[in-house]
Fold this sequence. Notes:
Layout: E1 4-6, E2 12-14, H1 15-34, E3 55-61, E4 69-71, E5 75-81, E6 94-100, E7 114-115, E8 121-127, H2 135-141, E9 145-153
Antiparallel strand pairs: 1-2, 3-9, 4-5, 5-8, 6-9, 7-8
Amino acid sequence: KAVVSTQSTGTYFPSDLKMASFFVLLMLFVGPVLTMDIHMAEPYSGEPTGADPCLRLCVGTTGRRSPWRRYGDLGLYQDISLENCHFRPGLTPIVTSVVAGKSHHWLAEGGSSVYSPKFNTFRIYLRLIAEYGDIHTLHGQDEWRIDWHAVGYTC
């Protein structure tokens, strides 16, 4: 016995057909994510590698209220955690970063320069030439942040 429901057009469809349509649409949107292929073409020299099925793409942001630390008169730095990525200790992920914000961040240098990457952290230094403004004021007022992604092994 099929259950029938009414559409706004006044036509009738079996509920099983609606459910099947829902799952087809769901797989069209979710399917590509489930089948994403990641391959480490060139790991860091001298480091062992894991198996490709153990590769993870992890993305994040430091957020608009980033905990920047002073680095001299013209600079800032921030240690960024990769703890939630659960990368394998001893294997360094490949990290890419960018500085983002409301304004003036295009004047800063260093947002894409990753320092001391490890399986659980990396560091970013930013520098701003004094004639462009005070980096220690601009980073907060313009909500500078670091957006990043990392690819590394989990096993």
